[in-house]
Amino acid sequence: MKRVIAIVAFVAAVFAVGAQSFKDGIYFAQQHEFEKSGWKYQVVVEVKGGKIAKATWNGVNNLGQADKKTVAASGSYGMVKVSKLKKEWHEQAAAVEAYLVSTQNVNFDKYTTPAGNTDAITGASILVKEFFVLAKEALASAPVAKGPYAKDGWYYASAADFDKSGWKANVLLTVANGSVVDAVWNGLSNDKKKKSKIVESKKGAYGMGKAAKQGEGHEQAARAEAALLKAQNPAASAVKADGKTDAITGVTITVSEFFTLADTALKAAR
Known about the structure:
Helices cover 33% and strands 20% of the residues. It is of the alpha+beta class and 270 residues long. The strands form 2 sheets. A 3-stranded antiparallel β-sheet has the order 1-2-3. Strands 4-5-6 form a 3-stranded antiparallel β-sheet.
Protein backbone atom coordinates (compact mmCIF):
# COMPACT_ATOMS: atom_id res chain seq x y z
CA MET A 1 0.00 0.00 0.00
CA LYS A 2 2.81 2.40 0.88
CA ARG A 3 4.42 1.64 -2.50
CA VAL A 4 1.17 2.44 -4.33
CA ILE A 5 0.78 5.71 -2.41
CA ALA A 6 4.37 6.63 -3.21
CA ILE A 7 3.83 5.98 -6.94
CA VAL A 8 0.62 8.04 -6.97
CA ALA A 9 2.39 10.87 -5.16
CA PHE A 10 5.26 10.73 -7.66
CA VAL A 11 2.92 10.86 -10.67
CA ALA A 12 1.01 13.76 -9.10
CA ALA A 13 4.26 15.61 -8.55
CA VAL A 14 5.31 15.09 -12.17
CA PHE A 15 2.00 16.46 -13.42
CA ALA A 16 2.26 19.39 -11.03
CA VAL A 17 5.68 20.28 -12.40
CA GLY A 18 4.45 19.93 -15.98
CA ALA A 19 1.32 21.97 -15.41
CA GLN A 20 1.47 25.60 -16.43
CA SER A 21 -0.58 28.37 -14.94
CA PHE A 22 -0.49 31.95 -16.15
CA LYS A 23 -1.74 35.25 -14.77
CA ASP A 24 -4.90 36.45 -16.49
CA GLY A 25 -4.41 39.21 -19.02
CA ILE A 26 -3.48 39.95 -22.61
CA TYR A 27 0.17 39.64 -23.54
CA PHE A 28 2.15 40.85 -26.56
CA ALA A 29 5.57 40.22 -28.05
CA GLN A 30 7.18 40.90 -31.41
CA GLN A 31 10.46 40.46 -33.22
CA HIS A 32 12.89 43.32 -32.78
CA GLU A 33 13.70 43.68 -36.46
CA PHE A 34 12.11 43.00 -39.82
CA GLU A 35 13.27 39.77 -41.43
CA LYS A 36 14.90 39.66 -44.88
CA SER A 37 11.47 38.85 -46.27
CA GLY A 38 10.24 42.19 -44.95
CA TRP A 39 8.02 40.70 -42.24
CA LYS A 40 8.20 41.15 -38.48
CA TYR A 41 6.20 38.61 -36.50
CA GLN A 42 3.95 39.42 -33.56
CA VAL A 43 2.04 37.25 -31.10
CA VAL A 44 -0.85 38.20 -28.82
CA VAL A 45 -1.82 35.73 -26.07
CA GLU A 46 -4.96 36.01 -23.94
CA VAL A 47 -5.07 34.20 -20.58
CA LYS A 48 -8.31 33.50 -18.73
CA GLY A 49 -8.64 31.43 -15.57
CA GLY A 50 -4.90 30.78 -15.61
CA LYS A 51 -5.06 29.12 -19.04
CA ILE A 52 -4.25 30.26 -22.56
CA ALA A 53 -7.66 31.03 -24.01
CA LYS A 54 -6.57 32.55 -27.31
CA ALA A 55 -3.39 33.04 -29.30
CA THR A 56 -3.01 35.23 -32.36
CA TRP A 57 0.00 35.09 -34.67
CA ASN A 58 0.46 37.76 -37.29
CA GLY A 59 3.07 39.89 -38.98
CA VAL A 60 3.67 43.52 -39.90
CA ASN A 61 6.05 44.55 -42.66
CA ASN A 62 8.41 47.17 -44.03
CA LEU A 63 6.89 46.81 -47.49
CA GLY A 64 3.98 49.22 -47.09
CA GLN A 65 1.35 46.47 -46.99
CA ALA A 66 -1.41 45.45 -44.58
CA ASP A 67 -0.77 42.78 -41.94
CA LYS A 68 0.24 39.27 -43.03
CA LYS A 69 -3.11 37.59 -42.31
CA THR A 70 -4.95 40.20 -44.36
CA VAL A 71 -2.49 39.91 -47.24
CA ALA A 72 -2.68 36.09 -47.13
CA ALA A 73 -6.49 36.04 -46.95
CA SER A 74 -6.65 38.29 -50.02
CA GLY A 75 -4.59 35.76 -51.99
CA SER A 76 -1.72 38.20 -52.46
CA TYR A 77 0.79 36.27 -50.34
CA GLY A 78 0.79 33.25 -52.66
CA MET A 79 1.60 30.43 -50.25
CA VAL A 80 -1.06 28.11 -51.74
CA LYS A 81 1.06 27.76 -54.86
CA VAL A 82 4.15 26.57 -52.99
CA SER A 83 2.64 24.80 -49.97
CA LYS A 84 2.36 21.03 -50.01
CA LEU A 85 -0.79 21.45 -47.93
CA LYS A 86 -2.28 23.90 -50.46
CA LYS A 87 -3.19 26.20 -47.60
CA GLU A 88 -2.49 29.90 -47.25
CA TRP A 89 -0.35 31.31 -44.44
CA HIS A 90 -3.27 32.55 -42.34
CA GLU A 91 -4.90 29.10 -42.47
CA GLN A 92 -1.72 27.38 -41.33
CA ALA A 93 -1.16 30.01 -38.65
CA ALA A 94 -4.65 29.27 -37.29
CA ALA A 95 -3.69 25.61 -36.88
CA VAL A 96 -0.59 26.61 -34.90
CA GLU A 97 -2.61 28.95 -32.69
CA ALA A 98 -5.16 26.22 -32.00
CA TYR A 99 -2.37 23.79 -31.11
CA LEU A 100 -1.03 26.11 -28.41
CA VAL A 101 -4.49 26.62 -26.91
CA SER A 102 -5.06 22.86 -26.93
CA THR A 103 -1.71 21.85 -25.43
CA GLN A 104 -0.99 24.93 -23.25
CA ASN A 105 2.67 24.24 -23.99
CA VAL A 106 4.77 27.31 -24.75
CA ASN A 107 7.90 25.17 -24.41
CA PHE A 108 7.21 23.40 -27.70
CA ASP A 109 10.35 21.74 -29.06
CA LYS A 110 9.16 19.18 -31.61
CA TYR A 111 11.04 20.71 -34.52
CA THR A 112 12.09 18.65 -37.52
CA THR A 113 14.46 21.26 -38.93
CA PRO A 114 16.77 23.83 -37.32
CA ALA A 115 14.75 26.55 -39.04
CA GLY A 116 11.61 25.53 -37.17
CA ASN A 117 9.44 23.18 -39.21
CA THR A 118 7.44 20.50 -37.42
CA ASP A 119 5.41 17.37 -38.15
CA ALA A 120 3.62 17.61 -34.81
CA ILE A 121 0.98 20.16 -35.86
CA THR A 122 -1.62 18.99 -38.34
CA GLY A 123 -2.31 21.58 -40.99
CA ALA A 124 0.96 23.49 -40.69
CA SER A 125 4.03 23.08 -42.89
CA ILE A 126 5.29 26.61 -42.29
CA LEU A 127 8.09 27.54 -39.90
CA VAL A 128 6.53 27.65 -36.42
CA LYS A 129 9.51 28.25 -34.15
CA GLU A 130 9.14 32.03 -34.08
CA PHE A 131 5.54 31.70 -32.96
CA PHE A 132 6.44 29.66 -29.88
CA VAL A 133 9.46 31.83 -29.12
CA LEU A 134 7.27 34.94 -29.15
CA ALA A 135 4.40 33.28 -27.24
CA LYS A 136 6.81 32.34 -24.47
CA GLU A 137 8.34 35.82 -24.50
CA ALA A 138 4.89 37.41 -24.33
CA LEU A 139 3.81 35.35 -21.33
CA ALA A 140 7.06 36.15 -19.53
CA SER A 141 6.36 39.88 -19.85
CA ALA A 142 3.88 42.12 -18.09
CA PRO A 143 0.32 42.07 -19.48
CA VAL A 144 -0.68 44.90 -21.79
CA ALA A 145 -2.44 47.71 -19.92
CA LYS A 146 -6.06 48.29 -20.87
CA GLY A 147 -6.28 50.98 -23.52
CA PRO A 148 -8.98 53.26 -24.96
CA TYR A 149 -9.87 51.22 -28.05
CA ALA A 150 -12.78 48.76 -28.21
CA LYS A 151 -11.48 46.30 -30.79
CA ASP A 152 -8.12 44.56 -30.92
CA GLY A 153 -6.50 43.77 -34.23
CA TRP A 154 -4.36 45.14 -37.05
CA TYR A 155 -5.41 48.36 -38.73
CA TYR A 156 -4.07 49.76 -41.99
CA ALA A 157 -4.67 53.06 -43.77
CA SER A 158 -3.10 54.55 -46.88
CA ALA A 159 -3.12 57.99 -48.47
CA ALA A 160 -5.36 58.28 -51.51
CA ASP A 161 -2.67 59.64 -53.83
CA PHE A 162 1.07 60.02 -54.27
CA ASP A 163 2.45 63.31 -53.00
CA LYS A 164 4.61 65.73 -54.99
CA SER A 165 7.75 63.79 -54.08
CA GLY A 166 6.28 60.57 -55.49
CA TRP A 167 5.43 58.85 -52.20
CA LYS A 168 2.08 57.55 -50.91
CA ALA A 169 2.11 57.28 -47.10
CA ASN A 170 0.59 54.39 -45.16
CA VAL A 171 0.26 53.33 -41.54
CA LEU A 172 -0.12 49.88 -39.98
CA LEU A 173 -1.14 49.73 -36.31
CA THR A 174 -1.38 46.81 -33.87
CA VAL A 175 -3.94 47.05 -31.06
CA ALA A 176 -3.94 44.62 -28.10
CA ASN A 177 -6.16 44.95 -25.02
CA GLY A 178 -7.37 48.24 -26.44
CA SER A 179 -3.85 49.70 -26.56
CA VAL A 180 -1.78 50.57 -29.60
CA VAL A 181 1.30 48.39 -29.06
CA ASP A 182 3.02 48.89 -32.41
CA ALA A 183 2.98 51.38 -35.27
CA VAL A 184 4.63 51.22 -38.69
CA TRP A 185 4.69 54.45 -40.69
CA ASN A 186 5.78 53.80 -44.24
CA GLY A 187 5.29 54.87 -47.83
CA LEU A 188 5.13 53.42 -51.33
CA SER A 189 6.78 55.08 -54.31
CA ASN A 190 5.45 55.60 -57.81
CA ASP A 191 8.89 54.41 -58.88
CA LYS A 192 8.49 50.63 -59.05
CA LYS A 193 12.22 50.15 -58.48
CA LYS A 194 11.80 51.37 -54.90
CA LYS A 195 10.37 48.86 -52.40
CA SER A 196 9.19 51.26 -49.70
CA LYS A 197 10.26 54.41 -47.84
CA ILE A 198 11.55 52.37 -44.86
CA VAL A 199 13.62 50.08 -47.08
CA GLU A 200 15.07 52.97 -49.07
CA SER A 201 15.79 54.98 -45.92
CA LYS A 202 17.54 52.11 -44.13
CA LYS A 203 19.89 51.48 -47.02
CA GLY A 204 20.67 55.19 -47.26
CA ALA A 205 18.99 55.68 -50.62
CA TYR A 206 16.33 58.08 -49.37
CA GLY A 207 18.91 60.77 -48.73
CA MET A 208 17.44 62.53 -45.72
CA GLY A 209 20.42 61.78 -43.52
CA LYS A 210 22.52 64.24 -45.51
CA ALA A 211 20.03 67.07 -45.13
CA ALA A 212 18.57 66.50 -41.65
CA LYS A 213 20.56 66.77 -38.44
CA GLN A 214 18.06 64.49 -36.68
CA GLY A 215 18.81 61.44 -38.81
CA GLU A 216 17.31 59.48 -41.68
CA GLY A 217 13.60 59.29 -42.39
CA HIS A 218 13.03 55.90 -40.75
CA GLU A 219 14.79 57.05 -37.58
CA GLN A 220 12.62 60.12 -37.26
CA ALA A 221 9.51 58.12 -38.15
CA ALA A 222 10.30 55.73 -35.30
CA ARG A 223 10.21 58.65 -32.85
CA ALA A 224 6.82 59.73 -34.13
CA GLU A 225 5.59 56.14 -33.79
CA ALA A 226 6.86 56.01 -30.20
CA ALA A 227 5.01 59.26 -29.44
CA LEU A 228 1.76 57.69 -30.64
CA LEU A 229 2.30 54.58 -28.51
CA LYS A 230 2.85 56.78 -25.49
CA ALA A 231 -0.13 59.07 -26.07
CA GLN A 232 -2.48 56.41 -27.50
CA ASN A 233 -4.26 59.20 -29.35
CA PRO A 234 -3.26 60.57 -32.78
CA ALA A 235 -4.83 63.91 -31.87
CA ALA A 236 -2.66 64.29 -28.77
CA SER A 237 0.44 65.43 -30.64
CA ALA A 238 0.46 69.13 -31.52
CA VAL A 239 0.95 69.57 -35.25
CA LYS A 240 1.67 72.99 -36.75
CA ALA A 241 0.07 74.45 -39.85
CA ASP A 242 3.02 73.30 -41.97
CA GLY A 243 2.49 69.68 -40.87
CA LYS A 244 5.51 69.57 -38.58
CA THR A 245 5.72 69.44 -34.80
CA ASP A 246 7.84 70.81 -31.98
CA ALA A 247 6.32 68.33 -29.53
CA ILE A 248 8.47 65.33 -30.47
CA THR A 249 12.20 65.55 -29.83
CA GLY A 250 14.35 64.56 -32.81
CA VAL A 251 11.61 64.92 -35.43
CA THR A 252 11.92 67.58 -38.13
CA ILE A 253 9.99 65.77 -40.85
CA THR A 254 6.34 66.45 -41.68
CA VAL A 255 4.22 64.29 -39.35
CA SER A 256 0.68 65.41 -40.14
CA GLU A 257 0.16 62.57 -42.62
CA PHE A 258 1.20 60.01 -40.01
CA PHE A 259 -1.23 61.17 -37.34
CA THR A 260 -4.03 61.68 -39.87
CA LEU A 261 -3.64 58.16 -41.25
CA ALA A 262 -3.31 56.71 -37.74
CA ASP A 263 -6.58 58.35 -36.80
CA THR A 264 -8.22 56.97 -39.93
CA ALA A 265 -6.94 53.46 -39.23
CA LEU A 266 -8.08 53.54 -35.61
CA LYS A 267 -11.66 54.45 -36.49
CA ALA A 268 -12.28 50.73 -37.02
CA ALA A 269 -10.92 50.01 -33.53
CA ARG A 270 -13.08 52.53 -31.69
